Amino acid sequence: MPELPEVETVRAALAPVMTGARIVGVDIRRPDLRWPLPSSLYDDLHNKKVSFVGRRAKIIVIAVEEKAIMLHLGMSGSVRISSHKPNAKPHDHIELQVSNGQETHYITLNDPRRFGYVDSVLLDDLSAHPSMSQLGPEPVAIEDQTLQVGDIVDLPYLNQALAQSKSPIKSFLLDQRQIAGLGNIYVCEALHRAGISPKRKAYTVKGARAARLLPAIQKVLEEAILQGGTSLRDHKQPDGKLGYFVQSLLVYGRDGELCTSCKTPIKAIVQSGRTSFYCPQCQR
Ligand SMILES: [Zn+2]
Q1: Runs of H (alpha helix) within the chain
Q2: Residues in the chain with pLDDT < 50?
Q3: In angstroms, what is the span from residue 276 Cα to ligand 1's centroid?
Q4: 8 and 127 both lie in a single domain
């Protein structure tokens, strides 16, 4: 499942190709993904000019004249950008052709499992959309973002939200109403870096622990976003699939392996249906 850094990598790849360009071709190959595609989608896109490509949590927001096109990659969605008409692959559901007058690009949305979605709303109504209105602040600031993404999480906010929650810190961090866009992988990694057990109750994460947690979350995401950017430059094949890259993880998926800090075996436990990976020695 693409997590925030991968979604940000897709956004960062789409932005230079789409911003200021006109969508000269729209090919919608099925009526639905996870939900029916908006009936206005073709008209919302066709021959319209893109003003910016932003992101809120894991939702890419493409501003097309007065509309905001929302793109969620779901479990298996990916995007390809090519400078020539691509050969159609299985599960290519939407293909756009964009032109800025000098260059033409083809943007293809592929999603085998179709848990992703595309929606279209008036730009003015974006923050009231059901998938947006409940979201907490963003975990990291992105420099070239033009979308007003709402607040960035800070320590006073985090302290206050932690103090009010009796959930395990792991579940607290996955709750999109507390902080938007965090997924299982980066929550496990951030808790490891901060030396906090995933089982610890959120309201007991305070003082020095909370002060370690915030930069741990931000650094783990920023490093992954940087890595995504690097993977983008390293694999600039015209048909490159965006949305996935290899990440260097210290605990996620490594149960039984030895902790890199203390050589204790990494443990895996299930919390609210999601597996938590942690070092029982370093994380308290
Ligand atoms: Zn350890």
Answers
A1: 4-18, 41-45, 130-133, 155-163, 169-174, 184-194, 208-234
A2: 235-239
A3: 15
A4: yes
